[in-house]
User: What shape does this take?
Amino acid sequence: MPPAAPTATSGEPAGAALEALRSVLDTAGFIDGTGPEAERYLHDWTGDYRGTGLAVLRPKSVEEVQALVRICAEHRVPIVPQGGNTGLVAGTIADGPPSVVVVSLERLNRIRGIDAVNFTLRADAGAVLQTLKDAAESEDMLFPLALGAQGSCQIGGNVATNAGGINVLRYGMTRDLVLGLEAVLPDGSLWQGMTGLRKDNRGYDLKQLLIGSEGTLGIVTGVELKLFPRPANVETAYLGLGSFADAMALFGMARRVCSDLLTAFEVIGSECIAFATLSNAQTRVPLAGEWPVHVLMELGCSSAIDGRALLEALLGEAFAASLLGDGTIAQSRAQARAFWAIREDLVEGQAKRGRHIRTDLSVRLSDVAPMIENARGYVLSNWPGWEPIAYGHAGDGNIHFNVMPPTGLSAGEVRERGTELLDGLYGIVHGFSGSFSAEHGVGRSRRAVYWKWLTPEQQKAAAAIKAAFDPLGIMNPGCLIPDR
Amino acid sequence: MPPAAPTATSGEPAGAALEALRSVLDTAGFIDGTGPEAERYLHDWTGDYRGTGLAVLRPKSVEEVQALVRICAEHRVPIVPQGGNTGLVAGTIADGPPSVVVVSLERLNRIRGIDAVNFTLRADAGAVLQTLKDAAESEDMLFPLALGAQGSCQIGGNVATNAGGINVLRYGMTRDLVLGLEAVLPDGSLWQGMTGLRKDNRGYDLKQLLIGSEGTLGIVTGVELKLFPRPANVETAYLGLGSFADAMALFGMARRVCSDLLTAFEVIGSECIAFATLSNAQTRVPLAGEWPVHVLMELGCSSAIDGRALLEALLGEAFAASLLGDGTIAQSRAQARAFWAIREDLVEGQAKRGRHIRTDLSVRLSDVAPMIENARGYVLSNWPGWEPIAYGHAGDGNIHFNVMPPTGLSAGEVRERGTELLDGLYGIVHGFSGSFSAEHGVGRSRRAVYWKWLTPEQQKAAAAIKAAFDPLGIMNPGCLIPDR
Assistant: This one.
């Protein structure tokens, strides 16, 4: 029997707790959970999940967060911490009884400072990612985290979910970008780790536990982030290849020739282009001839390096090695944007097509091509009429292998049969020792599959960490760890 | 009162336990703790620390490690895991009663495989770092971890202590190089995480806890490591500057101009040169004139990038900005080696001078110059006759600020007064929110200062993690966490 995490038991009437919570906040800080104002905090942006909550609390300071958490601990009121609420796995949407409060960090959103010599930026957890990126750019530096939701997701949420995105290849996941962290622990105490140090070997690195813990161990309130020199010189290429295996070989060659200056290496199965076209009828693939696999590659460097020459050297070598069918290097920023639009439009097009099966798989780079082949074979052999497509951040081994249902199925049928299909795909990726969640996390929607595939040792370790930090089980219960 | 970690209580006679342990191993696997063969496992290589042990156990397989740990748990025999025993903080040298066993990983030392497409190498924990570096190089790849002890330290120890070294600047600490980890937990169960994935957002990242935990949470038995393209083109420069502040400004400029292709950025206070000369009378500084601060800089890139031109562009810009006094770019590998010899010899020279005060401090890069100035002022004002020197990995904010005692003091006097001086230096670095241990760890020798400067929240968190993983307190007791 898997060990279970502790769960809050709400024995008391909530009234006293809510009054105490309200007393900490100003008028705009407390939103009743039953009113229309609470709506946008209680369902996720895809519309797939609808949660419950007694109230939405919007603290303006770290001290207010601490006071709220202390009251919740005293009254055993479970807390759902919430950033920009842009997640895809219901990590901020409670699915239990309506006894929780949502703590939104959106008003705790100051930039605390930029240190140009240390190449760091300090900010409150509620600061919006795009705001931080703009602040870094205004000092001629780069904060490289880049993802679709960057206009509304918050850095605290990015840290709590260890967000990924387009530039992981060069700059790493959010985990790799965090030098310092400040968090309110489940008893209301403050864990102070805003050190900004690049090297610090003093004992257990607790911040590593909080990063990616999806709000189950505490509430991130502040971060100190690595900045980088802004690449003055960006080159983009769109390439046609014969296979995913060739694409992975090209990636290895690109790492070597370009000295790891690549900022993106995206693969696109040619079957995805129809979805780009569905979203944008003007879609034009910049390739002569038909190629089963496309690669969108970007390289960023200082103005002292000839990025164009570097990319040309790579493509020359790749042609000579018969890895490359055709390719174009963007001659302008506008052309580069048009290349990227294909990648973005194919995602839009899938949404336009309607409900479908989405995955976020990762495997070793050496298993990318076999995994896609295997998964394709499984769908084509066992699911007549269902249409697989594959694309993603191949440089990270992260593939979105999605499946479109046959037209004519009801939403209910898609959901029901989709669960079964997903189980099959997860089994395949598990067979490659891969992950069913490369970057989206576990949340509540993937909790069952997460727990099912942990070994007993891993279940025990996860439950022990949860119990050590949150013995009352009040921090985002139901997320990640199954309720008792 | 600080919460204490659990400690093993050795109530039973050790005889039964030792017999059971012996039965798991072959003849060469069991070394009696009282014999001469055990000596090299029971004192550290500096000769500063001498420990105790009932026996040294040398398992040859992961299963043997598990069996040994199970027996130790059953009989409450504390374990000191040991790699190459090259640490500097007595992390593998027990200082308690002689009831412990040392588990040496040295016979568990196979390379399990290299995956050229995934750019990874899998190895047993006992594999020697240099062996892994050579294996990577034989496939035209680089495993970048580089430190003085690389000929004898083991990768499991590097992981357990989150080793740093020369190339952290470009490639990160050991933590950043580990993609997969396998460890035997304190109950003998196996934590299996050899996934080799670059992106994996499934729940708590337990491997991050084990990395840097100094053997207090489990015994690392296997690792999967990131490899990199081998820089075909390496350029080295030796520079003279007016101040540490100028050196840090130059570093920022170098990051921008050279697109983060720097592999090393070492500062050397000119007062260190006397120690290089003490070690090697042939030492010649390749600078015209006297400069208070020297910088040894290295850049690595592919053959498709003109590294020499890049370095020249940087130096031109730095001269124009009056950051640079004088400088030489190595014209040959031999000349580059001569530059590096100065950096290595100045360490040797200190040892030759005799017992002295060594530190391993880190601060924000923006605090490097003020911290050195502050620490120098403290020594010169308060410690007449004591001689401060400063050098280190400035690109990481990691400075070795060492102090030579006046000649004529006895070893006992140096030790006693040195402890007081060290307290003063640690206070200064603490005032800068810095770390007294950038890369060497805590072990037993820095346990008191570690614990003293943790906040109550951090003490509680560290003790909770220890108790959750090692409730019997048998795993490297006395290391990192104070005994009860």
